[in-house]
Amino acid sequence: MATTWCPGERKVNQRRTLCGAGADGRIWCLLLLPDAGPADDAVPVAPPDTSAALTTRPEVRSTATVDGPAEDRASTEVFRATDLNFYYGSFRALSEVSLTVRQREITALIGPSGCGKSTFLRCLNRMNDLIPGARLDGSLTYYGEDLYGPGVDPIEVRRRIGMVFQRPNPFPKSIYDNVAFGAKVNGFKGNMDDLVEESLRGAALWDEVHNKLKHSALGLSGGQQQRLCIARTIAVKPEVILMDEPCSALDPIATLRIEDLMGELKKEFTIVIVTHNMQEAARVSDVTAFFTAKADDTTGQRTGLLVEVDATEKLFTNPNDQRTEDYIAGRFG
C-alpha cells in the first residue's frame, strides 16, 4: 500500500533523539535513553502489528550470485521500493523509483552527481527524517513491512540499518570508546571487551590497533578511521550496512582494503553502496542500479530516475538501456 510520509516528532516510545547537521553537511543522531529501566527496554522495538520485520531476523534462504537478473534469484528480499518519490519541500529529488535489494548481496548505486543516489540510500534507514520539509511518497518495505508505517520506530530502524559515511567521522575519543559507544547507548550488558575485539576483527582492524586501544581515534590514518567507523557500525549488530561513497576520500591501498572487507562483510550483512567509481562497483557488487537525472525544462531542477538494475556482470557488459551504456562508456556523467 502506498504511503505518504513527512518527518514529525522526535520523541518515540518515550525516548528522545538529539539530532543535527555539522558544517560539512553530515547528519548525526544521538539516542537519549531514560535514566532508569530494565536493560531489555534500552532498545525500542516497534509494535509487532505494524513492524514485525523489525523484531526478528529472517532466515537466509540462499546466497548471492551474479548469474542473471536480480529479480530471478531466489534470495530473501530485504528492501522493495515501489514507485518511490522523494521531495525536499516542493522539489522532487527522486521520481518513480522501483528497486529490490536482496539479503547478503552487495547492491551498488551508480550514476552522475545529483541523480539522487545518496537521497535514496538515506531513505533506506530514514536518515532523511532529519531534514525539514522532506517527504516520501510511494512504498518502501523492509522484509515485507512498510518502513514508514505507523508504529515503526526510526531509532530501531537506524540500529538495524547502519550507515557508513563518505568521510571517516570517528568521535574525538579513544579507539575503544568509538567502537563501544553505540553498544553503551543501546544498553549493552555483555562483555564489552569481547564486543570491541569482535567488531575490530570484523572490520579487519584488530591486528593494527589491538595494542593502542586507548589511543585517540583521530591519530589513525584515513583508511583506518573508515574501518573504525565500520567497526563502530557493526558493533550494534545491524542487519544492513549502507555505505555512501566510503572510499572516495581514501588512497588506492586503503580503498582496496575496504573493498576486500566488503566481500567479507556480505557473508553476514546486506550491503548497499553508493559509488562514483564504476570499477569499484564492478569489483565488489553483485547487483548494480544505474540512476540518472532529468532536468525540468522550466526550472532546470534535476530529478533522479532509476534507469535500470541488473546483475553487475550483465549491466556492465550488456546493459538494456542506451543511457546506461553511454554512462559506462564515459560519454556523459
Keyword list:
11 helices, alpha/beta, 333 residues
Short description:
With 333 residues, the chain is α/β, with parallel strands linked by helices. 27% of the residues lie in helices and 27% in strands.
Structure description:
- The model is unreliable at 1-53 and 55-73 (pLDDT under 50).
- The chain is globular.
- The chain is an alpha/beta fold.
- The protein is built from eleven helices and 14 strands.
- A six-stranded mixed β-sheet has the order 10-11-12-7-13-14, sandwiched between helices. Strands 1, 5, 6, 8 and 9 form a five-stranded antiparallel β-sheet that branches. Strands 2-3-4 form a three-stranded antiparallel β-sheet, with no helix packed on it.
- Strand 5 (77-88) and strand 6 (91-102) form a beta hairpin.
- The protein has helices at 48-51, 117-123, 154-160, 175-185, 192-202, 206-209, 222-234, 252-265, 278-284, 312-317, 322-328; strands at 3-5, 11-12, 15-21, 27-32, 77-88, 91-102, 106-110, 134-142, 145-146, 161-164, 240-244, 270-274, 287-295, 302-311.
- Helix content is 27%, strand content 27%.
